[in-house]
Amino acid sequence: MTSFFSLLIYLWIAPHVLQVAILGVMVYRKQYRQFPVFFSYTGFEILQFLVLLVVNHLRLMSHEHYHVVFSLGSAGSTMLRFGIIYEILARVFHNYPSLNRFGKILFFWAALFLLAIAVGLSRGTSGGGTEHLRVVVSVLDRTFSIVQCGLLLAMFLFSRYFALSWRNTEFGIALGFGIFASVELASSAVRSQVGLAGNHFLDYFTLATYHLCVLIWLCYMLAPEPPARYDARVLPEHDLETWNQELGRLIKR
Description:
Elements: H1 2-28, H2 36-58, H3 63-92, H4 97-124, H5 129-161, H6 169-191, H7 196-222, H8 240-252
Helix pairs in contact: 1-2, 1-7, 2-3, 3-5, 3-6, 4-5, 4-8, 5-6, 6-7
């Protein structure tokens, strides 16, 4: 039992220590200018961890209040994750203004749709305020996880068909979030079918997955990014510039 508890403590603390290293690398290499939302997300995760650690250690709040603080932190983390999706797409389509404009419109309507879901859940959920908050944060987190899985799939499709290098930092960030989102969705689907012991195992597995994702981010931040280049072997109909021009004509109509 002690070994499992020690493993749990390690899986809770270690990723945030690595995130401190990520912040240091991003500051040293000035990558916070390229990925300001991801930089903010990393700092927020560290801050949330420290607040929860102090609250839990000093017993400053009741169990219910602790879960309120945790839910609010999760909500903030979820919002930043959504911002990271926008940041990655904006960087991928930076040189293609029409696609970039279309992505911003799509992102805006997606944000309104998710906000409507949150408002609907807050009105339709029975129970007290804490229960409302938990349900809203949980559903929004799953919704963003689905979006992040789609982002990961899209990034690999771009890598295959649009000659975008998977070694770029954008792919590393998307890969980490995509893996973690996939595991979160699978865990949520399994939790209702297993007992208490199974839920404990899923907690360990989810924490271990996040540890792996943080390691992926750190490796991508440390690795030199190859210069972007166009692969002449790709057929013209697969070129993003062609898509960009066609979308521009469609928007002007």
